[in-house]
Amino acid sequence: xxxxxxxxxxxxxxxxxxxxxxxxxxxxxxxxxxxxxxxxxxxxxxxxxxxxxxxxxxxxxxxxxxxxxxxxxxxxxxxxxxxxxxxxxxxxxxxxxxxxxxxxxxxxxxxxxxxxxxxxxxxxxxxxxxxxxxxxxxxxxxxxxxxxxxxxxxxxxxxxxxxxxxxxxxxxxxxxxxxxxxxxxxxxxxxxxxxxxxxxxxxxxxxxxxxxxxxxxxxxxxxxxxxxxxxxxxxxxxxxxxxxxxxxxxxxxxxxxxxxxxxxxxxxxxxxxxxxxxxxxxxxxxxxxxxxxxxxxxxxxxxxxxxxxxxxxxxxxxxxxxxxxxxxxxxxxxxxxxxxxxxxxxxxxxxxxxxxxxxxxxxxxxxxxxxxxxxxxxxxxxxxxxxxxxxxxxxxxxxxxxxxxxxxxxxxxxxxxxxxxxxxxxxxxxxxxxxxxxxxxxxxxxxxxxxxxxxxxxxxxxxxxxxxxxxxxxxxxxxxxx
Length: 482
Known about the structure:
single chain, mainly alpha, 22 helices, globular
């Protein structure tokens, strides 16, 4: 448990640092690029994101989960990843013009062609990343991700300032991958120097194929917003929704990725040891909700000042979208780790079936809602996440014996913490408000009250996270006295 806690702490530190760097870049770039320019990049990047999942095809999850990993497995993983990535680069480069015509914007094709360079580079780092995660070497991962985040942020800001428009975001992504490849090779040279092979391709693809399809469906669902909105409602709408979703993703993806990076290897290790995964899953949800619910609850009541501070007044139209998405995402912690535990159990078929239902409903809902408005698209996510919760609950009950009602009731402490956290922000919102001339000071009141409310809440309701915070504080205090 201590090892897992240490890994989670390092993973959180990594994501927090990367998020802080990315947030600074977003704040600056949002003032240098228009919603339409960001919309063009978002659509091109969404196409690439789907292809990236095809490139990996579950190989990363296989390397982490495989009980008896050999060098032939690693060589095969590199071989499959390289063949897939380079083939996709050629296909996307050739198809970029057609995709640009579909969206009636040449910029989309130009973004895709630039981002194709990443496919040529990534195979040399992906297996190394998987092995570092398997070994739970999150110190090395932190150095790689933080350094590459600095490279990405610096490049995007510099190029946007110099007038490179959406090209700035595309080229900064390439620079980031170059840094990742170099640092990965230095972190684990024995894995980076292997030659591609295909000796174990049947074993790798039999597992990785089903995981890969699940990941493809997940990425399609995540990219559906940009792809569908861009076609139906236009690039300005894509930019607005992308910014709204991006703010939600500060927690929904950044925070969740920090936990996911640890939980798949942790769940896999526990499963190999024969430990009880049901209690481990319940505890992971308790920890997710104590951060997620206060975050989204506070953001609902502070959306205006947060958007003004981060993006500026040209993004005010995203405010109601953010508030609706906050409500919708409150359900996500209950099933956010479900795919990790199902993969760790080897139940990749069940994970695939759940993904088909979840992402199928998601894409269908977006298509229908986009014919009405952006607000309808945001609201549809509430129904989508409810169906996802019901779907994953069925499979968790089947394979873990986990009662969904018991899972919900286990989070009562997190609910209490969330209510105390939003008390001051809600009061500020309904009494003082956020007028243009005073929103900064009023936001300071709300943020301070939310932080204090959260700290009081974890002790009043005796949430398990308080133990970890006390241990961390004691460790810092002891070091300061040395």
